[in-house]
Amino acid sequence: xxxxxxxxxxxxxxxxxxxxxxxxxxxxxxxxxxxxxxxxxxxxxxxxxxxxxxxxxxxxxxxxxxxxxxxxxxxxxxxxxxxxxxxxxxxxxxxxxxxxxxxxxxxxxxxx
Amino acid sequence: xxxxxxxxxxxxxxxxxxxxxxxxxxxxxxxxxxxxxxxxxxxxxxxxxxxxxxxxxxxxxxxxxxxxxxxxxxxxxxxxxxxxxxxxxxxxxxxxxxxxxxxxxxxxxxxxxxx
Lengths: 112, 115
Prior knowledge:
The complex is a heterodimer.
Chain A: E1 4-7, E2 10-13, E3 19-25, E4 31-38, E5 42-49, E6 56-57, E7 65-68, E8 73-78, E9 87-94, E10 102-103, E11 107-111
Parallel strand pairs in A: 2-11
Antiparallel strand pairs in A: 1-3, 3-8, 4-5, 4-9, 5-6, 7-8, 9-10, 9-11
Chain B: E1 3-6, E2 11-14, E3 19-21, E4 23-26, E5 34-40, E6 47-52, E7 58-61, E8 64-67, E9 77-79, E10 88-97, E11 102-105, E12 109-114
Parallel strand pairs in B: 2-12
Antiparallel strand pairs in B: 1-4, 3-9, 5-6, 5-10, 7-8, 8-9, 10-11, 10-12
């Protein structure tokens, strides 16, 4: 039983389109994170949260919004998608101690 | 700032050969960061391979090992004899930056093990 799940696993949209990526964790963790993974860049932090209703800005937040509706659910919103947002997106959770993170399987987003 | 530099891939080795993936870090916001190696198999998310939180200590898992060397700011990943199933992307990471729960990841090193 996967503790961090993401949906959809693959998504194709057009420039200017509206996209929501979903993440759910059953680890009872307070912290949740959204990353993007691009060749040559490693994982870059977009947004993170330490609880329902909380949002913290990451290192590459431009063009992204996020919302943490419950302890379990964290959403990433692209309201006007651009080709530069084509990437592999990972969600992760953490209990806030020791910095170890638990990752979902990823969502591959293509913006045409 | 805080950063991680690791071997640029892809790295190709034959089964039963030895492996080393280099990782060096720069930690300006924290004196003793926690250090990690994560692995990502095809179609899956990252999973923790090993972690070390104390300088001078060695971590090991699944035949892989890495030593936290504060003098050389290194955390190289080694394995004496790789298997085809070790083919994956390996990420070195540094935790606790800026006294937050943020983690800085390296760019990842793709390993291909030939049968």
